Input
Amino acid sequence: MKATAEIQVIPIGSGVSVRKEITRVVKILNTYDFIIEAHASGTDVEGELAQILAAVEEIHNTLHHEGIIRLVSYLKLETRSDKIPTLKGKRI
Output
């Protein structure tokens, strides 16, 4: 099932700058067959629902393994039964 999502990952306790951690998140997302649009407050993703959920799990597993103790992620997820959702279709 195709889906679109906005993923926001917040490392807690990593200091003021989280650029390193967020760069790692985007690198992980780029290993999947997604259309990705990173922005200031998160990353928009278009792809298969199962892969989006797997990517979020991989992000948490990887960052924890790399030393980040606490992560909070917000996931806005959209699926549709009448048509395939796309990021392009959401642009105003």
